[in-house]
Predict the structure of ABC transporter substrate-binding protein.
Amino acid sequence: MKKGFLSILLVLIFQNSFSQSNLSWQGYFSYNEIKDVSIAGTSVIAASENALFSKNSATNSVKTTTTIDGLSGQTISSVYYSEASKKTLVGYENGLMIVINEKDGTMLKVVDIINKQLPSGIKRINHFMEHNGLIYVSCDFGIVQFNLTTSQFGDTYFIGDAGTEIAVRQTAFFNGFIYAATSSSIRRANSANTNLVDYNQWSVVNSGDWSSVETFDSELIAINSGGYVHRYNSNSFIGFLQLPQPSTDLRAVNHNLFITTAGAVYVYNNQMILSRQILNTQVLDGNLSFTCATLLGDIISVGTKENGLFSSSLSVSNPFENSMPSGPLRNNIFALNVTPSVLWSVYGDYDGRMNPYPLDSYGISKLEESGWLNIPYEKVFGAKSIVNIIVNPNDENQVYASSNFSGLLKIENNEPSILYNEKNSGLETLTFVGPNYIDVRINGAAFDKSGNLWLTNSMIDNGLKVLQTNGQWQSVSMKTILVRPQDASYTDLTIDKNGTKWISMNTEGVVGFNEKGNVFKKINAGTDAGNLPINNATALAVDSKNQLWIGTTKGLRVLSNVNNFQSENQLNTRPIIIMEDGLAQELLYEQSITAIAVDGSNNKWIGTADSGVFMVSQNGQETKYHFTINNSPLPANAINDIKINDKTGEVFIATSKGMISFKGSATVANENLNNVYIYPNPVRPGYSGTVKIAGLIDKANVKITDIEGNLVYETISEGGTIEWDTTAFGRYKVASGVYMVFISAQDGGETKVKKVMIIR
């Protein structure tokens, strides 16, 4: 016999901050895929993929809860609000459970199920059922008791044959018995029995695969996996209604029974008479998939897999309204592009061999000051697997999105206007599959100083393309530099200050090209060929000191000076060597690097495939931050992309499970001191952050004095912003008063004086 959880609760208490977070974070999550819903007083709580939101019916206010607040980035599978304890329980597919105390906002991260010695694939939490102060947690291995008062687990019931694990989808309490809908039967046990850990106390009521069981006033209703609805007759469940589709959710709310399928919600009164039928075509269209439904007052809320939560009156056939927070189309953002005022994101992807299959059919998202604008797939002319996006620096209303299958999509004033492909441009389709197969693979893109758009076109001879400002296309052959250009897939492209195009590939390292003299250079693995750790190069960035940073699937390399491109026959990179525990180590040794971004202070933000984000100093010798799911709000350690708003210093980090941003202070230097500003100003009592002085030129001297001229702080700017912690050289907090900020250029040719008020 397998014993239950009679051990001490393994719990971690979440704070609303993390070990490295006197820092400021912001979350940008998708709320489109609704996993479950629950009622909390006058609010509906909806669980999306890895975030919660609630809408108050009295005030119409919407509240979100994300990893920024302490949730996990793992996938949510169930949510339940206990009115008696005023606690919200969040269950996850990996067995994690988070208990939110709505009275004070604290969170408990309960890891008992995760730590249970069971196969990881059977720890999913499917359902919460409350009875007499206990929560019965239905899991893919059995049932677990959880005490809401003590926040401790009790017994675990393995109720399969001979006490084996069995997937329990839902439980219900009815006439003194606990009923469990499982993957092989409906089983029941007397709730007064003190030995329910003994599988023999659980008897089979009906065999078969069951998706749900629910108490509905004086009835007990169950649905099997085939969508056949049954009623309990004191001995067994008798089928009486065949649904056209399998059920996705069954629940009883306020004397109504809600049966949800992908295409419809059926509402029955307590006489089991159908009182309302809601089809997906009545809510949006036939492509909409329902996941769950609940009732608050007279308002029915229906969760969907693709478009969030919809609400309407139950008694009156009013139109359904979408009621969810603004967000991107999906959490798995593959690539970003950021300007001072907008952010664009795309969702296509490819595997390690640059294979886009299975092809993705997603749209494009734009974040601006007013919120998110989502362009659906239906508007992008059939462009599949969109893997990159770039904004024209000379015209922010002109955007280009790279499809790794369909070509190049042009967007003007937020509307897709043309899809460039093999028929209407200089782009080419790969040919090795056959002459009739069209596959135009575009990825890396960059604008040069003249406004020409350079692109990579994979698996063809002429792999480098340019769309000139006059609308003409030109091609550059890669046959002179690559052994088999028709096998080359390009991962990234960047252009340095000399106009050299740097192109990374998954099989042949990095190639540099400059049209002045039509010069090509290659950087490969091997000490005599460029010193890359491997020829699978994934990410490129040129920093403010003309160094090319190269990410590969096996580590990091730096080309010390891109200015040597024309003069050196063989370009050689070097690793960053750091001292760790007294030993020389290679920075990010063997790490699979997915993204590199350079901030305004020339620090490097480096994303990895499974180890989170590293922020290193200008020369890489100091790791200033290492953010993971364990010490930050990162929803996943798999980083897809990193981009930085040069004006604000905000660092956007796209992961496989959502995007967050870090409110940094490293902004790009300005050309003069005309736009220097200080924030916050005044600094009010209770403010614990730093004072930012922004709009600086590079290497500006900044001195801060009190009103009597006593110096309290001095620094030299790196980039466009510096921070002051409002102390006198770190020794003590300065007193209330007005402080003078004197700013001067390195050569003394330009000065500026500002004031900041401190109120303690």
